[in-house]
Design goal:
The complex is a heterodimer of chains A (192) and B (436).
Chain A: H1 8-13, H2 22-34, H3 36-54, H4 62-83, H5 92-96, H6 99-132, H7 152-180
Chain B: H1 7-24, H2 29-45, H3 51-61, H4 68-81, H5 84-91, H6 93-96, H7 102-117, H8 123-138, H9 143-154, H10 164-173, H11 177-205, H12 215-220, H13 223-245, H14 251-268, H15 274-307, H16 310-319, H17 325-342, H18 345-362, H19 367-383, H20 389-397, H21 404-427, H22 430-433
Helix pairs in contact in B: 1-2, 2-15, 3-15, 4-14, 4-15, 5-13, 7-8, 7-9, 7-11, 7-13, 8-9, 8-20, 9-21, 10-18, 10-19, 11-19, 11-21, 13-14, 15-18, 16-18, 17-18, 17-19, 18-19, 19-21
Chain lengths: 192, 436
């Protein structure tokens, strides 16, 4: 097939994303690895159906492990979409202004996003701490409390913290990039 | 203490104002809702309440039904990269025949089949834009009609099961997703039928809009090529929808079975390779990150808003209006349509449904029926300027002389059709809920 559909989402946004910092580059590249977790979750779901109907032996782990894998995928998708500037936004003003104004919008956006991500990281820290420590302060991983009883709640809560902190760092770097950026001399406007 | 002294009414306006203020600066929607959620949690309840926001995040992402979303996106990503759609379109050429507007009808039929195969739109519009639009333009079809057919047909995926719009609705409204899928079929066919009738009527009165194919082109087509091209799509539809309707598998498992059927078909077609698989998985991951973080922000915001007493405030205000219940539904439709011009469907779903659905139920309406109205609304939102995603999808593959302005002008009659269908469904709920 000659059709390349990898720009479907770029098409929706009307622009091709650019990688802004080196960290963004690494995070975007890690997506090729983490994407396979979706394949694992898919395989587990199919295995469960076959085990249930083919052999009348439903598994105790398929349901929980797919939920876990996909929850982690959802979270990791945040930093990756941020790295590739894929998060949906209203671009009507952003695209209409000159590069100079756009640079200031980038600074403003990064500052506001910092507030959000700092709050999220703080709240994520509190939650992750509770999920990994018993009331007496000993290390203890919160589990689902089912027959299989995996420690996935603790792992997911740690992932929330890691992803929030990662996006915080990404945004700090975006802010620095926007502040350092010398706006181009010409006044060419955002082309669609 | 703090912000809570301003009261819930002023708080509501402040939230709405803050959302629009932040949105207009070009901030990602996911951050806007999340930030407003955090600010209000902090301002209203104090610092100790902040973990409530992450607790909402945790609750949202560990919903089992949500696992179906990446599965369906993965399935659509594989489908888009295989040649199944191309063969389907070419095979269906026999349907076009000598009929004025025939290729447009053929495009709509292919669009309906693609919609029944996957629950994600975007790829569909791009595919139809690549396959059908050049064909229609080459045959001398009216440009606006051709564009409208591609965009409207390609958006049928929001209605046609297995639609992820309906999956999210089922999750938010706590209703059976299988029931939603059952109820959506007749309205989806009604929309499809209306598009077909619109095309045929316009081309009947003015055949220049859709000139028929020449005799030698018609002679090349055979009914066998059509049947052959239908085999794989029908198999995939039967696997996904069949296992849901038969009650054999959960939505998530049905989606996983759908992925396997696409994989099997791709292997048989000798199209499957590691690059295709890798690209599909990476695409799915990114799309999930995009959709789910909007959901995370919105889920946190609506959670905080309800704690502030917002849900009680809104339902108290609406129910206290002393107007006929049907007007309440109409007001909700209007709000959804306006939001649809600016926000993404998942943001709208997560922000409005936790507030709207309890009111709908309290008024004595069927939440399944409201879900169908919601899906039609979201289909309209895909087309309406200034942020109809469908227009941007098509723009990326359309010939360069077609501008966004042309696309928006072309979809207007189709938006009108959607609104008429919405009104019909509003006044005749049986059209949706009769099979239940």
């Amino acid at each position: 097939m000659a059709i390349d559909l990898d720009d479907v989402d770029d098409a929706r946004d009307g622009h091709t994303p650019e990688i802004r910092t080196r960290l963004d580059g690494w995070i975007a590249a890690s997506g090729h690895f983490f994407g396979w977790a979706i394949f694992l979750a898919f395989a587990a779901s199919v295995y469960e159906v076959i085990a249930r109907y083919g052999f009348d032996r439903p598994t105790i782990w398929a349901h929980e492990s797919t939920t876990f894998l996909i929850a982690v995928i959802f979270l990791i998708g945040g930093p990756i979409a941020l790295a590739r500037d894929k998060h949906i936004r209203v671009r009507i003003v952003y695209d209409a202004v000159t590069p100079r104004v756009r640079r200031w919008l980038d600074v403003l956006n990064s500052l506001i996003a910092l507030v959000f991500l700092a709050g999220l990281t703080y709240a994520g820290w509190t939650m992750a701490w509770k999920a990994t420590h018993s009331p007496t302060g000993d290390l203890y991983f919160q589990t689902t409390g089912t027959a299989w009883n995996p420690p996935t709640p603790a792992l997911i809560k740690i992932t929330i913290l890691v992803c929030a902190a990662l996006m915080l760092v990404q945004t700090v770097l975006h802010l620095i990039e926007a502040l350092r950026r010398r706006p181009p001399a010409d006044t060419s406007r955002g082309e669609r | 203490m703090g912000l809570s002294s301003i009261g819930i009414e002023a708080g509501t306006y402040l939230i709405i104002g803050a959302i629009f203020l932040f949105l207009i600066t070009g901030m990602p929607l996911a951050w806007v809702t999340g930030l407003v959620a955090l600010l209000f949690t902090f301002g209203w309840f104090g610092e100790s309440a902040l973990p409530l926001v992450t607790a909402r995040v945790y609750g949202f992402i560990t919903e089992y039904s949500l696992v179906a979303v990446p599965m369906f996106i993965f399935m659509a990503a594989l489908l888009d990269r295989s040649g199944i759609a191309k063969d389907l379109f070419n095979g269906m050429r026999v349907l076009a025949g000598r009929l004025p507007g025939g290729v447009a009808v053929q495009t709509l039929i292919v669009a309906l089949l693609l919609a029944a195969m996957s629950g994600v739109i975007g790829g569909e519009i791009v595919l139809l834009g690549i396959l059908a639009l050049p064909q229609m333009l080459r045959l001398g079809y009216d440009r606006n009609l051709s564009i409208g057919v591609v965009v409207a047909g390609g958006s049928l995926g929001t209605m046609m099961p297995p639609s992820i719009v309906l999956i999210i609705y089922g999750l938010m409204a706590s209703v059976s997703i299988a029931d939603l899928f059952t109820a959506a079929i007749t309205p989806a066919l009604l929309l499809f039928g209306s598009y077909v009738i619109y095309v045929l009527v316009r081309c009947y009165f003015n055949p220049l809009l859709g000139p028929p194919m020449s005799d030698e082109e018609v002679a090349q087509e055979s009914i066998w090529s059509a049947i052959k091209a239908l085999l794989a799509p029908v198999l995939i539809v039967v696997v996904v929808l069949g296992s849901i309707y038969a009650g054999v598998a959960s939505i998530t498992e049905a989606a996983a079975l759908g992925v396997s059927s696409v994989l099997v078909v791709s292997i048989l077609r000798r199209e499957l390779n590691l690059t295709m698989l890798q690209k599909s998985l990476t695409h799915t991951l990114e799309t999930c990150g995009m959709i789910i973080w909007i959901g995370i922000g919105a889920a946190a915001l609506v959670g905080v808003y309800n704690l502030m007493g917002g849900s009680r405030f809104v339902s108290g205000t609406i129910l206290g209006l002393d107007i006929a219940p049907v007007f309440v539904i109409m007001i909700m439709m209007l709000i959804l349509l306006v939001l649809g011009m600016f926000l993404d469907w998942i943001g709208i779903a997560l922000l409005t449904l936790p507030i709207f659905v309890p009111i709908v139920v309290q008024l004595g309406y069927d939440p399944i029926w409201f879900g169908i109205l919601f899906a039609v609304n979201m289909q309209v939102s895909y087309l309406t300027p200034p942020f109809g995603p469908a227009a941007f999808y098509l723009k990326s593959v359309a010939p360069p002389e077609i501008t966004l302005r042309h696309i928006y002008a072309s979809v207007l009659p189709f938006i009108a059709i959607q609104l008429v269908v919405l009104a019909i469904l509003l006044f005749f709920p049986e059209i949706a809920i009769w099979p239940l």
